[in-house]
Design brief:
By secondary structure, this protein is α+β, with helices and mostly antiparallel strands. Helix content is 16%, strand content 49%. The protein starts with 6 loop residues before the first helix and ends with a strand.
Length: 462
């Protein structure tokens, strides 16, 4: 397996990376990259792609002695690199090493028999959930809702099968049995990173597959055309998959840290950007001094070379983002927009026999402090006495629940939130009311629209 293409591109990439790294600055860890493979014909491209991905992550500085030595073998660059010894001697001391071992190579071909091939011009079959169906070629239909019939029309999107049924179809096939051949390359990757306080090791499997021999149908000459792919392409795909997976594994190892430069709520500028590996869509968080309490979350919306513009997506109540606040690269907090409540209620008769327990789940909307601004819940209500009887009888007693739809909208918030409430109890009536919420504690009061029945209660609302 000989890889010949891409040498010039690889050399140019190494030249560019050398200059970029020599003239870059920062406190990133300096690491050397060592890629070990059993398959020597694949070694150069794998090294280049892994090196490129690690550099492009902008999380590390990459030691370049190996790259310079490789270039000196392939190009006459004495004049261009007349300062090579100076560069090497001035290079920062190595903080650690990223070692990548690729083993258990398994390269093989596999065959798949296909009976049908796509033929958009004169295909006489379509694919349905129940398999291929033969159709009347050239006939198109539309559905006439006024007569509930299919009417033949050249602009229609329906076709008629030999089974008498009509189908909506856009892709057509011909019955031409053929065998597709695939290249498959699999390997095991073990890696370890040791650099100052950074320690990470792991392993993963990489598997890629491409078509080695495929076919397309020529409907005008009624024949199949063969398309063959070089073996080298499987190495390109494999190297890219390996490097991308490795980058995903290492991205969280070294977290970029920046400082707030300016604030124009809800926008914030921090002093790290493209050169530090910051990406649009990334997340930074501001923590308390003990790094235990999250004070604010920033989402990156635009990056420059040495700065990033962020939007505040969360801020703790009572806290305000200030210049020089430290922002640490983090994973975004995943918020499930589900509301859940459990409450005990009693009506204006104040009788235990009519009291109930309500359990509800639904959707909620949060503000920038992650407090609930509105919610819509679907619940089920049980009479308290029925629940107690059911417990006492070990589940042998039956209870008849009732169902409700309820919702709330925050009217006022100053530590204690006040909500306007609405509720419809099936087989009962519609209610309106007010609610008080402090943390997850919730107190409610409802009245029918005619004010002839009242319900009071409280419980927990998340």
């Amino acid at each position: 397996m000989k890889y010949l293409s891409g040498e010039k591109l690889r050399v140019a990439t190494l030249v560019l990376l050398i200059f970029l790294t020599v003239f870059s600055f920062g406190q990133k860890p300096v690491i050397s990259v060592d890629v070990q493979l059993d398959e020597q014909s694949f070694k150069k491209i794998a090294e280049s792609v892994v090196f490129d991905e690690v550099y492009e992550s902008r999380k590390f500085k990459v030691l370049l002695q190996d790259a310079l030595r490789e270039l000196s073998k392939e190009l006459v660059l004495q004049d261009l690199f007349s300062n090579q010894n100076i560069v090497l001697s001035d290079t920062q001391s190595v903080d650690g090493q990223l070692k990548v071992v690729v083993s258990n190579f398994n390269f093989y071909t596999t065959q798949v028999l296909n009976e049908y091939i796509e033929n958009p011009v004169s295909g006489e079959y379509i694919l349905t959930p129940n398999g291929y169906v033969k159709i009347l070629v050239g006939e198109r239909y539309i559905y006439d809702s006024s007569t509930s019939r299919y009417v033949q029309n050249s602009d229609g999107t329906y076709v008629r099968g030999y089974d008498g049924k009509y189908y909506s179809a856009y892709t057509f096939y011909s019955f031409v049995p053929h065998t597709k051949v695939y290249y498959v390359l699999k390997a095991r990757v073990d890696y370890s990173l040791n650099a100052k306080e950074l320690r990470k090791a792991g392993s993963f499997d990489v598997s890629t597959q491409i078509a080695a021999k495929d076919y397309v149908y020529d409907p005008y000459n009624n024949r199949m055309l063969s398309i063959q792919e070089s073996k080298n392409k499987i190495f390109d795909y494999f190297s890219t998959a390996l490097a991308q997976k490795l980058q995903d594994e290492l991205m969280a190892t070294y977290k970029t840290t920046g400082y707030v430069e300016s604030i124009k709520f809800p926008r914030v500028i921090i002093d790290v950007g493209d050169k530090d590996g910051v990406k649009v869509g990334g997340t930074f968080k501001i923590f308390s001094q003990d790094q235990k309490t999250e004070l604010s979350e920033l989402s990156v919306i635009r990056t420059g070379g040495d700065y990033s513009e962020c939007e505040i997506t969360y801020i703790k109540k009572g806290y305000s983002v200030k210049p020089n606040d430290m922002a640490v690269e983090s994973n975004a907090t995943f918020i499930i927009p589900l509301s859940f409540s459990i409450s005990y209620r009693i009506d204006n008769t104040f009788s235990f026999d009519t009291s109930e327990v309500s359990v509800a789940i639904g959707l909620k909307k949060l503000d920038i402090h992650r407090d609930v601004t509105s919610y819509l819940n679907f619940g089920v209500d049980f009479l308290t006495k029925d629940l107690i009887n059911n417990i006492n009888n070990s589940g042998n007693s039956s209870s008849q629940p009732t169902f409700e739809v309820s919702g709330g909208f925050r009217l006022f918030d100053n530590g204690i939130s006040i909500y306007g409430l609405g509720m419809v109890k099936f087989e009962d009536a519609a209610y309106v009311g007010l609610g008080l919420k402090f943390g997850v504690l919730n107190i409610q009061a409802f009245s029918t629209l005619s004010f002839d029945k009242f319900i009071f209660g409280g419980g927990l609302l998340w």
